[in-house]
Amino acid sequence: MVHRPRAIEGQSSLLIKQSLAAKLKEEILEGRLVPGQRIVEGFWAKKFGVAQTSVREATNLLVGEGFATKASGRSARVTSYSEADIAQIYELRGALEGLVARLVAQRQPDLTPLEAALKAMRKATKSGDTQELIEADLSFHLKLCELCGNRFLYSGVSTMLIPLFAFVFDAGGAASSVSRSMEV
């Protein structure tokens, strides 16, 4: 039996759950796990050839990122937003991004990353690449948050925005409204 130092074991465990979380997130983003669907630990453990505990830990990471929800004593489910949820997220988003913009204006950082994201949005709009447009739009908002210099704001906004963009932005509705705003 090979004995590994605890630090290596802990690091290995972290890598496993991060890798599993990434695989589960891909299942969500590809639509194989749909909003509201229960994440059955035993099924995914068998599919990925890992312990059920590893899947549970990976699911907890997804909960922290906003891709899954978990009520006390219940199985995790893929995040599902109602229209009311989305309206509330946009209210919060407006308040937080207003603060972010004020902080960026005060700090006056180099805005090159924002300009690059806008350029990518315009290019995606012209080419009709909806997925690229959505990714560039998300990138713009995340870069804006990075530039404000407040890591807590960045963490909160990214936890709210990443799943929102993943679940809410469909090819017709949101993408076309973003496209229209880029035509200026």
What this model shows, in words?
With 184 residues, the chain is mainly α. It folds into 2 domains: 6-78, Winged helix-like DNA-binding domain superfamily/Winged helix DNA-binding domain (Arc Repressor Mutant, subunit A, Orthogonal Bundle); 83-182. 72% of the residues lie in helices and 2% in strands. The chain is built from 8 helices and 2 strands. The chain has helices at 6-29, 41-48, 52-65, 83-107, 112-127, 130-147, 151-168, 173-182, and strands at residues 68-69, 77-78. The chain has a two-stranded antiparallel ribbon. Strand 1 and strand 2 (77-78) form a beta hairpin. Helix 4 (83-107) crosses helix 6 and helix 6 crosses helix 8 (173-182). The longest helix has 25 residues, at 83-107. The chain is globular. Mean pLDDT is 84; it is low at 1-10 and 170-184.
What's the SSE blueprint?
Elements: H1 6-29, H2 41-48, H3 52-65, E1 68-69, E2 77-78, H4 83-107, H5 112-127, H6 130-147, H7 151-168, H8 173-182
Antiparallel strand pairs: 1-2
Helix pairs in contact: 1-3, 2-3, 4-6, 4-7, 5-6, 6-7, 6-8
Structure summarized in a few sentences:
The protein has helices spanning 6-29, 41-48, 52-65, 83-107, 112-127, 130-147, 151-168, 173-182; strands spanning 68-69, 77-78. The chain has 184 residues and is mostly helical.
Sketch the major β-sheet: 2 strands, antiparallel
- Largest sheet, spatial ordering of strands: 1-2
Number of domains: 2
Strand content: under 5%
Q: Tell me, rounded to a whole number, the average pLDDT.
A: 84
Low-confidence stretches: 1-10, 170-184
Q: What string, H for helix and E for strand, traces the elements in order? A: HHHEEHHHHH
Structural classification: mainly alpha
Counting DSSP H or I runs of 4 or more residues, the number of helices is 8
> Can you tell me the overall shape?
globular
- Supply Rg: 19 Å
Q: How many strands?
A: 2
Helix fraction, binned, reads: over 70%
Question: How widely separated are the two ends?
Answer: 66 Å
